[in-house]
Amino acid sequence: MKLFLLFALLLIGFSSVHLLIRYAWTIPQFIELEVENDKKDIRKLGSAFSRIQSEMQRLIYDNAVWDEMIRVIKERDLAFLEENYHIPESLASLNLNGMHFYDVSGEPVSHFALENNGSVILDSVFQTAKSTQKRQFLIVKEPEIPAAKEVQFRSGIIQGKQHPVLYVSGSIVPSTGVGDVVGTMLVWTYLDEKISQQLSDLMQRQITLFEYSALPQGKSVIPFDKYQDYPHIRSSEQKIYISFNDVNGKASTVMAYAKPKRMFDDNLIEYSMGIALLSSILILALIYLLINKMVIIPLTSLRETVVKVIDQGNYSQATNIQRQDEIGRLASLIDGLFATVNSQQTILVEANKKLQKLSDTDELTNIANRRSLMHFLEMIEQQRELSLFPVSMIMLDIDHFKTYNDFYGHQAGDTVICQVAEVLSRNTRSNMDLVARYGGEEFTVVLTQVSKEEALLVANKLKQAIFDLEISHQKSQTAEYISASLGFTSCEQADGFDIEQLFRVADSALYEAKEVGRNSVISKTYQLSTTDNKQTR
Prior knowledge:
- The protein is α+β, with helices and mostly antiparallel strands.
- 46% of the residues lie in helices and 18% in strands.
- The longest helix has 63 residues, at 2-64.
- 25% of the residues are buried.
């Protein structure tokens, strides 16, 4: 009986310890992980909503930062707007319900808005707004505020006649992006099924939109701007409800998605638990050692893996626990959770890479733009701290391009720019060099790991290749065909590498190439001080 009582007490003691560990450590750790994952889902939802606004902003930038649009607004060329923008099919394909144009004082120039069924809207909030309301969504010129000189954007949620509306507006400025603002372009869309579908596609789960005022009383709704302060995200509801504020700071729109399935068992007592302590202290000691080796150590390892993943944000890791019991199944579930999050991160990284490529590529020529050029030079600057290699820069300008545009037309000029870009790309190394459109008819070519003499040969080769296109230029004062002037310099020492100086010397060489009659290559020796630059022809 004493042995039986001892066994019973030991069994109760071990069971109590196990329950205490599960109650005070294991389950709280998993709940904390679950809360963090729920907050990550909310952040992803906010990012997806911001991406939709960014696409609308990109649409405005592509159309409002344009010299032709300045003319249209100043002359109130309604025929141009009706022919190019008042197109129902285009509005539907862009998932928009309205497009509006205003002058700099906030007076409307043109309105075009449609319901989802295609009927024309004549009384949207953007068509009937008073001057005080317009300040919420327009970039207007006021006496007490100096005139803006560069593109500005405004966005937000505003209550429409019947439904909340998402709008994005941007100032109309010259194509350089800097200059006097002459008006505002505004686009908007109902926060309805089409936005819900876009969010669902981005989130890869069903997202449903509601008006905040239409939700039943008692719903647990989490404000998006305060969700980080919430210790718990989930409630007894089957869905998680996130509210977004309008421009007045009031809850307007609610986005809901199904509550993710819980990835662990939160019951305090496990039915599969059974510890058999049979006869003696020796066997009990053996069982203690086995429990320590098979339960405590694996759980500690599992927890350390989870903490490590949370700290590093690297979800490609695994628990490396291959077992058939509850711990093995739990480890398998956590590995599955890590794999799912890692896959979603991969998808987001690929999407960001595509967006990055779009932002680093010149829209006309599909080669690198100025931003990509600067990133490339900064990368070279970092690499040169570890390994020494020469860097050469060629600044290239198409000769008499303005007269070509005036005589042949801008479309023909764009074709020439594309042909020159193709020639430059074809005659350089895609894996080591960079060809970028610096602006207008000016290009920059960066050559790496070639000597100064080899780089000079490349510059002359590029000049000749452009001339060999034999593009007729009747108004050229230099040659019968399109030609180019090139300024060239090389930096061969890492401690003297300076991006601004590289540009300055190459640009100075380009200036001299134009001065000596164009269709030529001028090379200048790179120095930190340019007072003693030598030049060769």
